[in-house]
Structure formats: C-alpha cells, structure tokens
Amino acid sequence: MPSRPHLFYGLTNSLCSQCLSKVEAKILFRKGNVYLAKHCPTHGPEEVLIADDIDYYKQCQEFIKPGDMPRRFNTPIKYGCPYDCGICADHEQHGCITLVELTERCNLSCPICYADAGAEEISAQSHQPRKHRSLEQIEQMLDAIVANEGEPDVVQLSGGEPTIHPQFFEVLEAAQRRPIKHIMINTNGVRIAKEPEFAKRLASYLPGIEVYLQFDSFDEGPLRELRGADLRQVRQQAIDRLNEYNLSTTLVSTVKKGLNDHEIGKTIDFALKQKAIRGVTFQPIQAAGRLDGFEAGRDRYTLTEVRRSILEQSDTFKPKDLLPVPCHPDCLVMGYALKLAGKVIPLTGLMDPTDFLSAVPNSVVYEQDEELKDKIFKLFSTNHSPASSASALKQLLCCLPKVNVPAGMGYDNIFRVMVVQFLDAYNFDVRSVKRACIHIAHPDGRIIPFDTYNLFYREGCAGQAKLQEVMGGMPAIATPMTSTISPVSIN
Ligand code: SF4
Ligand code: SF4
Predict the structure, then answer these.
(1) Strands (E), 54-114
(2) C-alpha to C-alpha distances, 384 to 119, 148, 339, nearest whole angstrom
(3) Which of 82, 252, 290, 336 could form a disulfide with 452 if both were Cys (CB 3.0 to 4.6 A apart)?
(4) For residue 173, how many other CB atoms are within 10 A of its CB?
(5) Does pTM surpass 0.85?
(6) Are 310 and 264 in contact (CB under 8 A)?
(7) Ligand nearest to the CA of 89
(8) For 112-151, what is each residue's pLDDT tens digit?
(9) Which of 423, 439, 452, 483 to mutate to test the pocket of ligand 1 (most atoms within 8 A of CB)?
(10) Which carries the bigger pLDDT value, residue 6 or residue 479?
(11) Nearest CA to ligand 1 atom 2
C-alpha cells in the first residue's frame, strides 16, 4: 500500500487567498518544507509554503508561554476569529507593541505600502482624500491603548509618514505624558535626513524615544522597486544625523524574495558599525495593501527563509542565537549580540555551551531550568525599552555561572536582530494569529492585531466586504467603545 508523499502534522484554520473565507487547512511536512494545504468550496485547493525548516517550525510549537492578558477586551466573541477583532476576549496575547497611525499622507509613494499612504492628496486605490488625523483623535487612540494595557510597553507612532503630521511634536509630547514605557517613531527618514533642525529637535525628546528607520537596500534598483525612489543618499544622511545624536535606532528592512534578500548579511554588518543603531528588523512583505508588481507565488518569503539567510550571510549569528520569541513564536525570531570594545559577540558566544545549549540541534538545556527559562523568555520579547532590554540581558547573564557581566554594559552595547513576519491571506493560521502581539489602534477605539487590521479592518481594504458579509451586512466598524468587556467575562 503506497504511503502519502507527506507527513500530516496537524490541522488549523486559514483563509482562502481569493475570497478571504475561513477554510480548514492541513499542516503538511514534505521534503523538508512545511505547507498549509487548504480547500475553499468556491476556489478549490491551495497549497502555501509556510516554512523551509521543519525542525525550527516544530521548535516554535514548543517555545511558548502563557499569554499576558490586557486590562480589558474591546469586542465580544461573536462571528469567530478573525472576524471579531478586537481585541476580543478570545485573543491570547496583550500588545507588546501597539501602532498609532497619525496620518494617511506621506512624502513618499512606495509601490508596496500596506497603508496605501502617499504624497498625492487623493488615493488612486480608494479615490478618497488622504487625511492627517486630528490631535484630539490621536489622543483618544493613545488613551485606548493605555486603557487596554495600563502601562503600554511600546507605542509606535506610524502612518503614513508620522513626521509630516503638522502637529508631530505635540503628538510626541502627548505620548510622553502618558504612562508609555517606550515610544518608537516609524519613519522613512526623509525629514531626519533633509532637515537638520528637525533631527535636533527630535533628539531633544531623548531618552525614551527610538527611531524605527526604513532601510531596505544599498542599491538603486530595489529601492526604486520597493520605494519608488532612489533613497541611498537620504538613508545615509539620516543615519549620519542619528549617529550624531546617538538617537537609538532600529533599521527596518522590508524583504522581497529575489530582490533584496541577498543584502541581509550586508545590512547587519553595516548596522553593527553605526553608533546609534541597536539592531535590524527584517520584515518579509505582507501580501496586503498596495502591492504593485508583487506576485505571491513568486515573491513571498517565509520567516525561516529569512532566518536561514541571516545565518548564511552573516558571521555574527549561529543557529542557536536565533530563537523564536515565546509570545508569538510562529512569527517572530530574535537574536542578541553585544558590542564590546570593538568586538561583536553573539549571546551564545558569551556562554559555555553546556550551560545554555544541549548537543541536540534546536533544543535548549534551559527548558529544564525554570529560572533560566524565565530570564530567557523575558529577554526574548518585543516589548523592550532600552532600559528593560539591558536589564533583562544582565539578569540572564548573571544567572549563568561562567559568564562575567561586562562592567558598564548598557543599551548602547546591545544589538538585536529580528525577523517579523505578518500573517496574510496565504499563510494565515488562526492558531497563530491569536498570539499576535503587534497591534494597532483603530480610530474607533478598538485595538486590533496588525495582521488582521491590514486584511479586514483598515478602512477601504479588500477584506471589508468579506467582513460585512460575515456580519450579515452590518457595517464593519460598528463596535463602539461602550461594548468594552472586561477580562472577567471570558469565563
Ligand atoms: S485575531 Fe484575536 S482579536 Fe481578532 S478575532 Fe481572532 S482572537 Fe479575536
Ligand atoms: S514611506 Fe511608509 S507610509 Fe510612506 S508610502 Fe512608503 S510604506 Fe507607505
């Protein structure tokens, strides 16, 4: 009797990439790869590559911790995930990072903008005018985040391009007045590069702010394809200014398979030499929003492929440095290195391998040591401020008997590499999205996972029609704040 050509590993729910209906999906292992095999009653079968490393994929299923509860949930469980966002009472993780979009406008018009932002006043996609949000509305969104989180770990001011909001600094001050531990500014860097006074004023808000700087390529071709402009000089000028003020910065590279994926190692090496840069985040393109020239079958890049590229292209990190992040392991990879006296030492390089890592590939000794495991889980999280990541790292190192914590070690010495993969209609997995810890404030007061926001909840996006259909024709944004339910009501 012939065997199946794959191993059937499990079952989940996904989405049909054509009509966004919820469909059952088998998780299959075949020839070293992991696939989602779905069947839509209307559009038939669909198979999607979700990982090219079975061992690492399995490690993600084990590398988990109980989720942290927000102070409140915003919507009841009614239509089923992902149609109840949110945060609905069925969501398993609070927001480690929550975005607030200040504006729909931008000083660039990237062909791949998930937010359909642009320099033109009218969107060619929605035919609606692009607006700045009012300060009052932004403050309400900040208040909604605080109401959900109490003391939010990280709030990211985003857009569109947040720095072109006419009241950008008032927004920054409004955020600093609230009990937010760490504020990030998600920017393309154009104003920082071109306006010295803007960069100087931004630096005056230190400490407690960090720049999340778009940085996709060193070459003109990929920049034009991803950003619609040759930004090489702008990027360098922005980094020079950030170095001048030692303004903590994370470079963010949007990666498209076959376009800029060969630059991953070069980006890490470049970042390590910059005074102000504390790390690099690689984000494979999410198939959502404006995606001119993007073909999912050809251009999608999985989390494990990016991780593999980091290992192949950079000498800094070894496989056991790049671990799943326990709050959302399917979608987040993280690795640490220390910059000490001109040297770059990966975290595992500081340790005796027998303290930390077992000889078995992808398994870790600390799984048996609860204290060590707790400290690793604290460090490997997206919710860090500069102070908290330095302190979490020190606590971990102190816990290891053969490691001397370097004197005076602070955030300036830490370098963090991350892969952040957002779920789209292709790789969507209900089991995974319930752990999503990167959220976004909806203007109506809800706080929604970033993944589902771009698929269903962003005004004018393709998924709004599906949402209305599921809700029996009800407006897709109707859940008022008065429907807020407390954590108590989930039982
Ligand atoms: S993604 Fe989370 S918030 Fe949205 S419906 Fe699913 S469980 Fe609820
Ligand atoms: S810089 Fe960012 S917000 Fe502006 S168009 Fe590009 S992706 Fe969109």
Answers:
(1) 97-101
(2) 33, 18, 18
(3) 82
(4) 11
(5) yes
(6) yes
(7) 1
(8) 888 888 888 888 777 788 899 999 999 999 999 999 999 9
(9) 452
(10) 6
(11) 91
The CA-CA-CA angle for residues 467, 472, 476, to 5°, reads 35
Tell me the mean pLDDT in the region 173-197: 96
* Max intra-chain CA distance, the chain: 74
Instruction: Check pLDDT > 70 for residue 192.
Output: yes
Which residue do the tokens 């409140």 mark? 72
Query: What is the pLDDT, as a whole number, of residue 405?
Result: 60
What is the atom index within ligand 2 of the atom nearest the CA of 188? 1
Nearest CA to ligand 2 atom 3: 160
Question: Which two tokens mark 202?
Answer: 């931004």
The pLDDT assigned to 489 comes to 35
- Residues 382 and 379: their CA atoms lie apart, in Å, by 9
Ligand 1 centroid – CA 435 distance (Å): 9
- Assess whether the C-beta atom of 280 lies below 6 angstroms from ligand 2: no
Residue 262 has pLDDT above 60, yes or no: yes
What does each C-alpha distance from 268 to 4, 209, 210, 217 come to in angstroms? 41, 22, 18, 12
Model pLDDT for residues 237-248, shown as the tens digit of each residue: 999 999 999 999
Q: C-alpha angle with apex 415: 409 to 420, nearest 5 degrees?
A: 140
Which residue puts its alpha carbon closest to atom 7 of ligand 2? 113
Does any ligand 2 atom lie closer than 6 A to the CB of residue 189?
A: no
Confidence (pLDDT) at 350 = 66
CA distance 415 to 321: 12
